[in-house]
Amino acid sequence: MTRALRAAVIGCGNIADNHAAAYRDLTGVELVACTDVSPDRAERFAARHGTSAVGPDELFGLDLDLVSVCTPHPTHESVVTRAAAHGVHVLCEKPIAVELGSAARMVAACEAAGVALGVAFQRRFWPAAQRIRDAIDDGTLGTPVLGHASVLLHRDTSYYTADAWRGSWASDGGGVLMTQAVHNIDLLQWFMGDAVEVTANHTTVKHGEAIEVEDTAVATLRFASGGLATLAASTALTPGLGTRVRVLGGTGASAGLAEYPEGSEARIDVWAVPGAEAAESPFGPGFRADLTLPEINGSLAPLHTLQIVDFVNAVREDRDPAVTGREAAKSLAILTALYASAASGRPEQVPALKEEITS
Ligand SMILES: NC(=O)c1ccc[n+]([C@@H]2O[C@H](COP(=O)([O-])OP(=O)(O)OC[C@H]3O[C@@H](n4cnc5c(N)ncnc54)[C@H](O)[C@@H]3O)[C@@H](O)[C@H]2O)c1
């Protein structure tokens, strides 16, 4: 019998519970430890999940096989490269990093060490998202020619003030685009292929007293295939209207998914395929109050579990995880161009990670 994989969680904040719960419940995986720069947080987390809290320096003496990195985005590079240097496989939370050079160094460090680097884009594991991806692969939709993502969410100002790292360019890397819409940008590019050029505009309409980053943005994207997409994103809504991603394919057929309320499993709201047409309200049975942040994160747990199962199997089978560091860097490259375009007022090219790695 193969021995259990030894897992640990780094960063014991909001989203870390989803990772710990998945490791705890999986057979063949042992949640050996957790760590946090705040020892109190690590202790409370360890007690909740029946594991041991250790200091960051002790962690890599524990003969670990894999870690989940659940620290704020700007710290991902230092934590991930440290894990790689110890020969430990890494599943990192999204976004992979806040600048593309960081992502390139993370990918290069993991590739040089021969460890897997996965990035949590668990919304790809929605059955609705997989159905759309399959309909692209099997030709039902054809090559996507037009896409749209809307990310119309609610955040209380207290969300931004609760943790010191949120809401500044230096420590958060951006606002609604970087932290919330990155999931939908990832889905758009997963469906439509590599993006090559974008235009963007952003503003701060509601949370300006608490944050310097954007809470509202619009963008256009052009893809290598010739396809085009639009994006609208905001955390200024009360109540939020959830998220939607729609794709029109070259066959003329189109499909869309809706996540409402935020955090719930997305459903196909439009399936406009000749002979199989179906539609339902993106809001399901009706409007619902926004979930609290812990409820949103909690309802994402089954999807984190699906991605963690894939990651653990990738480590066991010595294959790439479903979302690699290189794949996750694509949404960061788009974000880099979106912020550049909003600053320059001009269309901007989407930079390639390959150039970053070799430069
Ligand atoms: N996949 C998703 O849907 C999803 C949802 C929420 C958050 N996230 C991502 O997860 C990450 C964490 O977000 P959060 O909301 O849980 O943040 P959080 O602030 O609640 O938790 C972060 C924790 O990391 C600790 N920490 C900071 N630097 C550290 C370091 N160098 N070493 C060890 N611990 C460190 C902090 O003390 C804190 O306890 C972010 O990148 C965020 O974008 C992803």
Automatic annotation (TrEMBL):
<dbReference type="InterPro" id="IPR000683">
    <property type="entry name" value="Gfo/Idh/MocA-like_OxRdtase_N"/>
</dbReference>
<feature type="domain" description="Gfo/Idh/MocA-like oxidoreductase N-terminal">
    <location>
        <begin position="5"/>
        <end position="121"/>
    </location>
</feature>
<dbReference type="InterPro" id="IPR052515">
    <property type="entry name" value="Gfo/Idh/MocA_Oxidoreductase"/>
</dbReference>
<dbReference type="InterPro" id="IPR055170">
    <property type="entry name" value="GFO_IDH_MocA-like_dom"/>
</dbReference>
<dbReference type="Pfam" id="PF22725">
    <property type="entry name" value="GFO_IDH_MocA_C3"/>
</dbReference>
<feature type="domain" description="GFO/IDH/MocA-like oxidoreductase">
    <location>
        <begin position="130"/>
        <end position="252"/>
    </location>
</feature>
<dbReference type="Pfam" id="PF01408">
    <property type="entry name" value="GFO_IDH_MocA"/>
</dbReference>
<dbReference type="InterPro" id="IPR036291">
    <property type="entry name" value="NAD(P)-bd_dom_sf"/>
</dbReference>
<protein>
    <submittedName>
        <fullName>Gfo/Idh/MocA family oxidoreductase</fullName>
    </submittedName>
</protein>
